[in-house]
Amino acid sequence: MKLQPGTERELLVFAGSEALRRDMETLRTRWRNPFVINGRVDIDGFLEFLTEFNEFINHEPKPFKPMLDWDMKL
Q1: Cα–Cα distance, 36 to 26 (Å, whole number)
Q2: Do residues 35 and 46 lie in contact, with contact meaning Cβ atoms separated by under 8 Å?
Q3: For residues 53 and 35, is the Cβ–Cβ distance under 8 A?
Q4: Residue 37's beta-bridge partner residues?
Q5: Per-residue pLDDT tens digits for 35-74
Q6: Sign of the dihedral defined by the CA atoms of residues 17, 19, 22, 23, in that order
Q7: pTM over 0.70
Q8: Structural contact between residues 41 and 33, judged by C-beta atoms closer than 8 angstroms
Q9: What's phi and psi for 53, nearest 5 deg?
Q10: Cα–Cα distance, 6 to 13 (Å, whole number)
Q11: Which of 8, 13, 26, 66 could form a Cys-Cys staple with 3, CB 3.0–4.6 A?
């Protein structure tokens, strides 16, 4: 994707901002994985997130369809 010349200049100036660099460093040091609690993966929390996210995006679950294949080779 080609940026317009004005937009490209603006992004370059913004990227050189010391305040932006400090903010990004602060975010990096405070980041944590929300699905890891006490060094273990919280499966229940992850499944709850997926369920709520699917509800948020209004994702309709696909109906179950059994896989039928007569010539299955590994």
Answers
A1: 20
A2: yes
A3: no
A4: 40
A5: 998 989 999 999 999 989 988 898 777 788 887 777 777 7
A6: negative
A7: no
A8: no
A9: -65, -45
A10: 11
A11: 8
